[in-house]
Amino acid sequence: DAGVTQSPTHLIKTRGQQVTLRCSPISGHKSVSWYQQVLGQGPQFIFQYYEKEERGRGNFPDRFSARQFPNYSSELNVNALLLGDSALYLCASTLPGNNQPQHFGDGTRLSIL
Amino acid sequence: GESVGLHLPTLSVQEGDNSIINCAYSNSASDYFIWYKQESGKGPQFIIDIRSNMDKRQGQRVTVLLNKTVKHLSLQIAATQPGDSAVYFCAEKAGGGNKLTFGTGTQLKVEL
Question: I want to staple B32 with a disulfide (CB 3.0 to 4.6 A). Which of A45, A77, A99, B12 is the partner?
């Protein structure tokens, strides 16, 4: 079975631009979460979506937004990109229910010039 | 690919030895804990999880121990292999929702 898939794998943008990252969860997983991982650190939680609704949000500015589609795939949008947004953006999916393990994709490496 | 382990604590072990990776967590309300393995250029890979009503859980070659009194978590890897070389993260979760809080990570290096 396919794992979590993310696209694109790499992306280069300039300051002030906007970016959209995409995620397809594991089949049967209805919850998707987004994380930002800066080099040398652990992932930081950005959003959780379940049944197309936002269920949790981390400490990120309003430039970050996301949505989930009826097929449970998700997009993360970042506006007005800053140099500090350069990071690996990870998507994780889980089965319904509390305390289910999150399974991660290999991420999108975003570089801001 | 890029290393995820820059400036992280490093544990070096000989192939075949047992490895113990430790993690201190901060939130006494955390009730779910996970260990992940992250290889260079890849996303975190689920290893094993444990709920707060347990103090030990075993998987294939791995054991997780949870000490809630001192808020400490450890991952034991038996008969460490070169393929175990990676950065290992512990993560905690409190209550409902999916927000995981990750630790700083430990770079495991397996020497032949």
Answer: A99
